[in-house]
């Protein structure tokens, strides 16, 4: 016989799991720092392993490590003793996950890993467990009551394992100085990749980015713009630094007051000191500038003020933003 869904019990599950995470805060101490330092110093891979639900959590922790600058992969403990032990090397760190610390498959794996010379770090309830005693470094979870109504299904304990794994991975990321550019490198695709693209990745260069000197006639500049199928031309001074930009809007304003304006020097009719960006700026930032200024092109300059490219609104749209 089924019973109605109990919303208050659902809230209790969330309270139990959040309490499990909060209980870890006071446990972050010397052993946690030792584990984090050993992971940062690892010259090989951080190999994550765990059985059942802990193994599924381990897959996510391994993915977080890898995407934040720490080489990592997951090895199933049961498969490890059937050949996958070859995925673990002396310079690696084994990060083993088990709430009980009595997982038979992990306990069979640990002696072989230690024989290889790799470091063993365990996330487990207590250092007095079999897994804890077999490890070099133990980060203790403490006693955690499961949220399951039977008190059996891993729930609060796996939530705690995941949070503790995230804390390790992100502490190492911060200590390494892993920055936004690094993060973009490891996330080149999808929504994250699009948001983290650099201006230099999508800007127009070479023949698609016409550059002229201030003494160039407007007509000549128009021909270059047309050939490049661009919306503007960068104008440089005698020192080669960007002096201005000449756009379709500048051309319309020129011709409205002087139909023969194509004979004029472009330096006399260009937009001086235009808004510019550097090639290392995020495309998302450049888009914000384009919108705020209500313009369609942004000259891209290097640290010396030399033209490096041109960012057109069409390039931004083509980048998926």
Structure write-up:
- The protein has 15 helices and 11 strands.
- It is of the alpha/beta class and 321 residues long.
- The protein folds into 2 domains: 7-178, Rossmann fold (3-Layer(aba) Sandwich), CATH 3.40.50.10490; 199-318, CBS-domain.
- The strands form 3 sheets. Strands 2-1-3-4-5 form a 5-stranded parallel beta sheet, with helices on both faces.
- It is elongated.
- The two termini are 52 Å apart.
- The mean pLDDT is 91.
Present the secondary structure layout.
Blueprint: H1 7-25, H2 30-41, E1 46-50, H3 52-67, E2 72-74, H4 77-80, E3 93-97, H5 104-116, E4 119-124, H6 130-133, E5 137-140, H7 156-176, H8 180-186, H9 190-195, H10 199-202, E6 211-213, H11 218-228, E7 232-236, E8 242-247, H12 248-257, H13 266-269, E9 271-272, H14 283-293, E10 297-301, E11 307-312, H15 313-318
Parallel strand pairs: 1-2, 1-3, 3-4, 4-5, 6-7
Antiparallel strand pairs: 7-8, 8-9, 10-11
Helix pairs in contact: 1-7, 2-7, 3-7
Short description:
By secondary structure, this protein is α/β, with parallel strands linked by helices. The chain has helices at 7-25, 30-41, 52-67, 77-80, 104-116, 130-133, 156-176, 180-186, 190-195, 199-202, 218-228, 248-257, 266-269, 283-293, 313-318; strands at 46-50, 72-74, 93-97, 119-124, 137-140, 211-213, 232-236, 242-247, 271-272, 297-301, 307-312.
């Amino acid at each position: 016989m089924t019973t109605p869904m109990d919303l208050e019990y659902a809230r209790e599950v969330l309270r139990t799991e959040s309490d499990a995470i909060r209980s870890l805060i006071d446990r972050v101490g010397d052993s946690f720092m030792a584990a984090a330092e050993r992971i940062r110093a690892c010259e090989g891979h951080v190999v994550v392993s765990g059985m059942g639900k802990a193994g599924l959590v381990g897959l996510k922790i391994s993915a977080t490590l890898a995407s934040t600058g720490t080489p990592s992969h997951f090895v199933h403990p049961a498969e490890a003793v059937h050949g996958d032990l070859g995925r673990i090397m002396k310079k690696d760190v084994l990060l083993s996950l088990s709430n009980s610390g009595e997982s038979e498959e992990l306990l069979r794996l640990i002696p072989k890993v230690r024989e290889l010379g790799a470091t063993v770090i365990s996330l487990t309830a207590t250092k007095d467990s079999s897994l804890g005693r077999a490890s070099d470094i133990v980060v203790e979870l403490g006693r955690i009551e499961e949220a399951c109504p039977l008190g059996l299904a891993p729930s609060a304990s796996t939530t705690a394992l995941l949070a503790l794994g995230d804390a390790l991975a992100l502490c190492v990321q911060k200590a390494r100085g892993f920055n936004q550019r690094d993060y973009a490198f490891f996330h080149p695709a999808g929504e994250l990749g699009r948001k983290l693209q650099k201006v230099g990745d999508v800007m127009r260069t070479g023949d698609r980015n016409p550059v002229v000197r201030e003494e160039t006639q407007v007509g000549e500049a128009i021909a270059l713009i047309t050939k490049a199928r661009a919306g503007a031309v960068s104008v440089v001074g005698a020192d080669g630094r960007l002096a201005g930009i000449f756009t379709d809007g500048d051309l319309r304003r020129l011709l409205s007051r002087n139909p023969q304006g194509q004979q004029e020097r472009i330096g006399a009719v260009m937009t001086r000191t235009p808004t510019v960006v550097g090639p290392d700026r995020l495309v998302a930032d450049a888009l914000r500038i384009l919108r705020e200024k209500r313009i369609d092109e942004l000259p891209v300059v290097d640290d010396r003020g030399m033209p490096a490219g041109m960012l057109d609104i069409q390039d931004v749209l083509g980048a998926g933003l």
